[in-house]
Amino acid sequence: MATTDTAERPAKKLSASATKRVLPGFGLSLGISLFFISLVLLLPISGLFIRAAGMGWEEFWFVITDPRVVASYKVTALAALAASLFNCVFGLLLAWVLVRYEFPGKRLLDAIMDLPFALPTAVAGITLATLFAESGWYGQYLAELGVEVAFTPVGIVVAMAFTSVPFVVRTVQPVLEELAPEDEEAAMSLGASDLTVFRKILFPMLWPAVVTGGALSFARSLGEYGAVIFIAGNSPYVSEVISLMIFVRLEEYDFPAASAIAAVVMTVSLLLLLAINVWQGRYLKRLHGG
Amino acid sequence: MPNSSFSGSKARKGLWFSALALAFSLSGPATAQERELLNSSYDIARELFAEYNVLFQEYWKEKTGQSVNIQQSHAGSSKQARAILQGLDADVVTYNQVTDVNILAERGNLIPEDWASRLPNNSSPYYSTMAFLVREGNPKNIQNWDDLVREDVELIMPNPKTSGNGRYTYLAALGYAQDRFGDDQEKIDAFLSDLLGPVKVFDSGGRGATTTFVERGLGDVLLTFESEVNNIPELNPDKNFQVVVPKVSFLAEFPVTWIDKNIEKKGTEDVAQAYLKHLYSEEAQRLLASFNYRVHNETVKKEVAEKFPELKLMPIQDIAGSWENAMETHFASGGKLDQLQRRR
User: Fold this and answer.
1) What percent of chain B has pLDDT over 90?
2) What's the mean pLDDT in B123-136?
């Protein structure tokens, strides 16, 4: 015990001083980062909260618990959940294909992956609505099966899934790239079935990345407006999303109410991302035997 | 919409350049002066003002010898009004909602409260009303508001919560119901609730509703501005849509005014006021009529009488007392509209 202790200490010291020498200007770069974050993120966010706070607790509560707004929380949260669950599965599959296989057009597929981020969301929304409407390419066949997508809550899920699938792909991809196939091969040579390899070797390593990607996708979906609005139908209590309720308050020149609802969404997103980060840190520590 | 914010920022940029240009031109000889105007307008007026600006530039050049550089900014008019409240120094506004001009007086103190009396016809050089567009041959035989509440009729209209277009349709239906049921509030409410309840798609704006009806083939009737309703068959001659103008509808004014605070600061009083007054000239009214708006000029009115059937046009005062009252009792959170749209 004692020997390992003494052996470890100088090594630690060395690595600490080494990083300092390799990357100078820690103070300066952290300062710039904090300044920038304050300027573009924290300041507007606190502005939002201050505006919402200006209305008094009772009124704030009244605004954020309006039955129609509450219905929109439910619609949005459920749709975002469904979309991000779908993305976790589908995104993992896409990342797997992109990392583990060689095929013609792989680079192209890799590039296309980011398209939902590059495309203006309104364009995505209008395109999806056109495709899934009863007269559209997909919609006409779905209609025969009795499935309605456009202008129903299902349409919201489709739009959310489309705009946020790159989050999962892009968080899982690098982790998958670092996984050595040797582990799987070893397991297989020891007689593990495909399922066992996935369950015992791959899944524990990929799980945190998938969850992070899913959480990002969920948070993004909560706030999605452009893509959703064109396919949702926007029926009161049925297919209205939170961002529409915020927009409605803005249209009424009711800025405090808009800020109040926005503050609710942001707090939820923030808490969720924070929780995921903490959980992931712990999980990885346990996984790597820290 | 991204497009509109883009054009907004472009207009801003243009303004910076023009401010620079103005600084230079002031330091130089004052003869070949170029005047600047920024017109903050509603979403679907791009083509209209692109053509009107040419008219006005020629008129102003002839009158004063100055050329005018007119910047346009287009988006939903509530969004536009917000931008002005937040400091966009537009010289004139040309909107499709009276409330969005009122807010400039109430919140920003940028114009006097009585702005509407500064120009003829409530400062509304042109107007429109709410009408119906139906599919080829009018298969559901839609003639008036009654037909819209029948169970076999599916409506498409923009969201009254997010668009003036939708609010006008609501008020038009309310006006009709008042006309028909008199003081019977219960029947009026039932009629409105029957009308709004089955609406399948509430697009956030008027153009979105048009797309839903025309491109996606949803619904039997599209409710929107008469100007838009007339526009659609012209753009889609192959679909043989038919225009139905009801017997009673809402008088939809298109208010214009100059922003006193901004034009004083920029010294554009003369050109800004002339820009709006010229909208009442015969040539401008003819242009407006060609965009399917109803106009006031008697000569032009006679020329286009065929296009605009007679109907009973109800102003906001007859339906809800005033705009202020309409917004408060009908459209504000928890108002009549919210109650009618309650889950049933």
Assistant:
1) 69
2) 96
The label of the residue with tokens 């207009």 reads B11
Question: Where does residue B95 fall: left (phi above 0), alpha (psi -120 to 50 degrees), or beta otherwise?
Answer: beta
Closest of A70, A228, A81, A73 to residue A151, by C-alpha: A228
Alpha helices by DSSP H, chain B: 2-27, 46-64, 77-85, 98-106, 120-123, 145-148, 164-181, 185-196, 206-214, 226-235, 260-266, 269-277, 282-290, 298-303, 316-320, 323-326, 336-340
pLDDT in tens, A182-206: 888 888 899 888 888 888 888 888 9
Contact between B204 and A126 using a beta-carbon 8 Å cutoff: no
Taking 70 as the threshold, does the pLDDT of residue A2 lie above it? no
pTM of the full structure: 0.78
Residue contacts between A and B (CB atoms, under 8 Å): 74
Handedness of CA A9, A10, A14, A15 (dihedral sign): negative
- Count CA within 13 A, CB hemisphere, residue B140: 23
Nearest CA-CA distance, residue A194 and chain B, Å: 46
Q: Does A253 touch chain B (CB under 8 A)?
A: yes
Which residues on chain B are in Cβ contact (under 8 Å) with A257?
A: 333
Distance of CA A277 to the CA centre of its chain: 12
Instruction: Grade residue B56 by pLDDT with cuts at 50, 70 and 90.
Output: very high
Chain A touched by B239 (CB under 8 Å): no
CB atoms within 10 A of CB B146: 12
Chain A environment of B208 (Cβ under 8 Å)? 230
Closest to B294 in 3D by CA, of B235, B340, B253: B253
Q: Two tokens at A47?
A: 């502005």
Tell me: pLDDT of A42 over 70.
Answer: yes
Query: Which range (A48-52, B129-133, B210-214) has the least confidence?
Result: A48-52
Interchain CB contact of B334 with A (< 8 Å):
yes
Residue contact B208–A230, C-beta within 8 A: yes
Q: Does A134 touch chain B (CB under 8 A)?
A: yes
**What is the Cα–Cα distance from A96 to B9, expressed in whole angstroms?**
42
